[in-house]
Amino acid sequence: MAAGKATIEEQLRGAIETMTRAERQLAGHVLRHYPVALLGSVTQLAKAAQVSSPTVVRLAQKMGFGGYPGLQAAVRDELEARLEGPLSKHDRWSAQAPKAHVLNRFADAVLGNLQATLAQIDQQDFDAAAQLMADPARKVFATGGRITLAMAEYFVTHMKVIRPEVELLMPVSNAWPPALLEMRRGDVLLVFDIRRYENNVLQLVEMAAEQGAEVVLVTDPWVSPAAAHARYRFSVQVEVPSAWDSTVAIQLLVETLMAAVQDLTWQTTADRMARLEALYERARFFRGRK
């Protein structure tokens, strides 16, 4: 999928206001069970959504797929993109690369990712997630996969200054039981998971959700399986002319989340920062001016 191109899920959300009542009912079912809902037959989908088969066909046509088979083919393409590895990704980008310098091509892709990501973030969900993370009655945990763990570490490093009781969960199974032992109902788990989605991240999310944790998921346009357990989910654009996906849009979301939480907790955060600076000064942690 090209950078910035809307997924089927995004197309459905964007077209809700133009749909008939039956089409909105169908779209709501598909969005709640995406993409699995679109893998069965027309009859199966119509029965599950409690609409007629012609409604299914009509919505697929309205979305520009010609009919239900075309919609299913597009879903399969998205599912294949979820599993795309670095080698095939590099080959695809190389074949389509314009002659401009890689600095310009990469910057154009990243800027497009940022604009597309900001356009699709639900601001009410963002504010609600920030409120959860600012709640002093809740602990905040963060974790990620092989690549995205760095985002979780960055988040935790700063959040420990902003508020107390913030913990990084390493994505290795032998570290989970002690951490889950400390996780109470209502605590917050921030999860980063982009393709190729990792089984250990999903397993950790499942166990945390079973304990009543509020899961906030940051994922990509193809959506991590962990979304089934998330209270809030934010999809960011990640495609760039490289064998690897970009985390720049994730970084933007993380820093904005931290700024939002800081604003909500500033009265106590300012005191924490002042005490921390005093400790740094006493330890001569930073190089002073000569």
Keywords:
290 residues, Arc Repressor Mutant, subunit A, Rossmann fold, 2 domains, five-stranded parallel sheet, 13 helices, carbohydrate derivative binding, DNA-binding, RpiR-like, transcription, RpiR family transcriptional regulator
Give a short synopsis of this structure.
The protein has 290 residues and is of the alpha/beta class. 56% of the residues lie in helices and 8% in strands. It contains 13 helices and five strands.
Strands in their spatial order, largest beta sheet: 2-1-3-4-5
Distance between the termini: 54 Å
Query: How many structural domains in the coordinates?
Result: 2
As a percent range, the share of helical residues equals: 55-70%
Count of DSSP strands: 5
Give the overall average pLDDT: 87
The fold-level CATH name of the largest domain is Rossmann fold
The amount of beta strand, in percent, is 5-15%
Please state the second-level CATH architecture of the largest domain.
Answer: 3-Layer(aba) Sandwich
Given helix and strand content, the structural type is alpha/beta
CATH homologous superfamily descriptor of the largest domain:
Glucose-6-phosphate isomerase like protein, domain 1
GO molecular function, one term: DNA-binding transcription factor activity
Pfam families: HTH_6, SIS
Keywords: DNA-binding, Transcription, Transcription regulation
Domain HTH rpiR-type: 6-82
